[in-house]
Amino acid sequence: MAAMIPGPIAYFNGGYVPIEDAKISIMTHAFNYGTGLFEGIRGYYNAEEDNVLVFKLPEHVDRMMRNCRILCMDIPEDQAAIEEICLEVIRRSGFREGVYIRPIIYKSEHSLGPTVKGVESRLCCYIIKLGDYCDIESGLDVAVSSWRRLSDNAIPSRVKSTGSYINSSLAASEAKQAGFHEAVFLREDGTVAEGSAMNLFLVQNNKVITSPPNADILVGITRNTIMQLAREALGLEVIERNIGRSELYVSDELFFCGTGAQVAPVRSVDRRVINGGTPGPITKQLQSVYFDVVQGKNPNYRHWCRAVY
Ligand code: PMP
């Protein structure tokens, strides 16, 4: 008889359970008010080592823990415990392929009233198998959204909060309904923020430019990785500064990056073609360095990868 392959195992209410048993009540605070925060973390399968390598796990958990302060969240699990839970759900599920890990800290009480203070929070975590989330070969057609990015004094974008993804969903759906692949958010002041679930970079005269951390963006782990790799591996100048909308149309190259998106070239913005409609040379170099790094093939950055097995 063939060995039983386990279904995905989740972490829920302090223990490991089959994903079908990880259920919350419709009265849960987070379900009613969007008071959850989460991470999206990738594990890449390395065939030579027959292992799954989780990319920048401590950095993701650190962002989560810091953002707990904004939503007044307090959970029993600490940084080390959460890292271990992220690895353990993969081990218990027995996955040996590309995975996406989704830890969520959420207001778990069954209480009425939109407040963040004094409401009990819990951690849960699940995984799914994940390959490419968007086209990373031929380039994306994107459009500036009519929806503005959430501002820091409304719902802080730096928190990867469940509620804030209404903003992302509206922009992404608008773009897709109009025949584009993805949206670019502007801020209330008209400067460029980011994509619906990814950060945006432009390349101008061999300089790599991206919006600063106070530009209503989620300060992406991939963004930081790309900035470091552009400087160290490609020797390029990297600049964080506000970006105007029309700069997008005249840039030499444009690309998105994020855990899900990875490094995704943009070939047009509002039907204005970028780099002749093909991925630019710097984008392609960064893509190639990035994929080597996340797959554990670059010894200089191997410490960013955590082996699961
Ligand atoms: N911005 C938004 C709105 C996102 O949802 C994501 C995906 N987490 C990113 C940027 C990229 O962040 P990271 O590189 O940490 O995945």
Structure commentary:
By secondary structure, the chain is an alpha+beta fold. The protein folds into two domains: 9-129, 2-Layer Sandwich (D-amino Acid Aminotransferase, Chain A, domain 1), CATH 3.30.470.10; 140-294, D-amino Acid Aminotransferase, subunit A, domain 2 (D-amino Acid Aminotransferase, Chain A, domain 2). Helix content is 26%, strand content 29%. It is built from seven helices and 17 strands. The strands form three sheets. Strands 8, 9, 10, 11, 12, 13, 14, 15 and 16 form a nine-stranded mixed β-sheet that branches. Strands 3, 4, 5, 6, 7 and 17 form a six-stranded antiparallel β-sheet that branches. It has a two-stranded antiparallel sheet with strand order 1-2. Helix 2 crosses helix 3. It is globular.
